[in-house]
Write a structure and sequence with these properties.
The protein is an alpha/beta fold. It is built from 18 helices and 15 strands. It folds into three domains: about 50 residues, no CATH class; about 110 residues, Aspartate Aminotransferase, domain 1 (Alpha-Beta Complex); about 230 residues, Aspartate Aminotransferase, domain 2, CATH 3.40.640. The protein has a seven-stranded mixed β-sheet, sandwiched between helices. A four-stranded antiparallel β-sheet has the order 11-12-15-14, covered by helices on one side.
């Protein structure tokens, strides 16, 4: 009688006790490794895997990390690439998130042993960054900031808003739909291409909850157009809410047409909303700045609890506000000559298939529309693109004229070696 080959397959617990699987179990958890072991055992029973290869098969099939999110080297030249997670965090922000991952004094005063206000350090940092604000508040993203402001000021009332600013942004998201879900009625004024202060003034009534002005992001009109600046809307009576979108704290000569929070406040806006993961270079968050009495009202609204941020976001945002320049700032203001030097060095290491070409980057995420960022890229054959995207880390470049361009604007110099090795691995 022949021995049952299944008896030669070690038991699950025996395989899990193998020292080679100790580190994966610490990294990924025992249940995930156990599932991989079960899969290997089934293959062995089916005769598709030698018993001696069980552990090696398990090790090959296990992912390098517990999340399915894969690190990406952004070689597209787009600084704020929404599909790649927008702003990369600074080393200070990453360290702050790691420090906040365990127990922290989020709502606790260690001196008195009593409860304390949530996020007080981050709020203080934002107040210092925006001295023109009466007070500030932080919610979980830019849309949430606008949602809270309009809900508190205009639920059951009217929002006066220019037709030229009723925009749709990424993924089919329409700002008028956001306003409608607050319970407010939209009172459109002006025409698509021209709106005047008189249009706003004529629409204001006892039913007006607020006047809303929204930065139109990467939607632009040219020709016979006009809009009303913030300063001319500030004296109309109802609270003026301005959504500047990109989270620029103060004006930047590189982006002359991009509105900033400080400028909007100085021009007379009562409430300004913005995103934290765009030009600020921080984590996803919604920033609200403005009159202290209005911010206090926002904080007391039940919706504020549903939109509040977690401890990791608070930690990363505080470190971004008070720490070194963010990777976003560095990428936006990268020296073209330095980019060219790096590109030439990488191309030399890659050999005859690589060239150095000029490359115009962009800000991205609806910020700085039309602003071309002069830079340089390493040009390699287009056939490399798919394989580079499949690597770990993945490398995402830009296809142009039958070539794959690896723009170095958003690639940290410390990642140049990894970029070279990723290309070589595709050969």
């Amino acid at each position: 009688m022949h021995a049952d080959p299944r008896r030669a397959i070690p038991q699950t617990d025996s395989l899990l006790a193998d020292p080679r699987l100790a580190e994966p179990q610490r990294r990924l958890g025992r249940p995930r490794v156990r599932d991989a072991v079960h899969d290997a055992q089934e293959r062995a029973r089916a005769g598709a895997l030698p018993v001696a290869e069980l552990i090696n098969h398990v090790l090959r099939g296990l992912p390098p990390r517990a999340t399915t999110l894969r690190p990406v080297i952004n070689a597209t030249g787009t600084v704020l690439h929404t599909n790649l997670g927008r702003a990369p965090l600074s080393s200070a922000a990453r360290a702050a998130m790691l420090a906040a991952a365990g127990y922290v004094d989020l709502e606790y005063d260690v001196a008195s042993g009593r409860r304390a206000s949530r996020g007080r350090g981050t709020l203080d940092a934002l107040r210092r960054a925006l001295p023109d604000a009466g007070d500030v508040m932080i919610v979980n993203n830019g849309a949430a900031a606008l949602l809270l402001a309009v809900t508190v000021l205009s639920a059951g009332r009217e929002v006066v808003w220019s037709r030229g600013e009723l925009v749709e942004i990424g993924d089919g998201f329409r700002l008028p739909d956001l306003v409608a879900c607050t319970g407010a009625s939209l009172r459109e004024v002006g025409t698509t291409n021209r709106t005047t202060r008189a249009d706003y003034a004529a629409a204001i009534s006892a039913r007006t909850g607020c006047v809303l002005k929204v930065h139109t992001s990467n939607f632009r009109m040219t020709g016979f157009t006009s809009s009303v600046p913030i300063g001319e809307l500030a004296g109309l009576g109802p609270p003026l809410v301005v959504d500047v979108g990109s989270g620029l704290l103060a004006s930047d000569p590189l982006l002359p047409d991009e509105p900033d929070i400080s400028g909007a406040l100085r021009s007379g806006a009562d409430v300004v909303t913005a995103s934290g993961d765009k030009l600020l270079g921080g984590p996803q968050a919604g920033l609200i700045a403005g009159r202290a009495d209005l911010i206090a009202t926002f904080r007391r609204h039940p919706l504020a609890r549903a939109l509040r941020v977690d401890k990791l976001t608070l930690a990363a945002l505080e470190a971004t506000l008070g720490g070194p320049p963010s990777p976003t700032t560095a990428a936006l203001h990268a020296d073209p000559d330095a980019l060219r030097t790096r590109a030439a060095a990488i191309a030399t290491r890659l050999g005859d298939e690589a060239d150095v070409v000029s490359s115009a980057g962009e800000v991205g995420a609806g910020s700085g529309p039309g602003v071309a960022l002069a830079g340089w890229a390493v040009s390699i054959p287009e056939r490399y693109a798919a394989a580079l995207r499949s690597g770990d880390p993945a490398v995402v470049g830009r296809l142009s004229g039958g070539r794959c361009l690896l723009d170095l604007r958003c690639v940290a110099p410390a990642d140049d070696d990894a970029l070279v090795e990723a290309v070589r691995a595709c050969r």
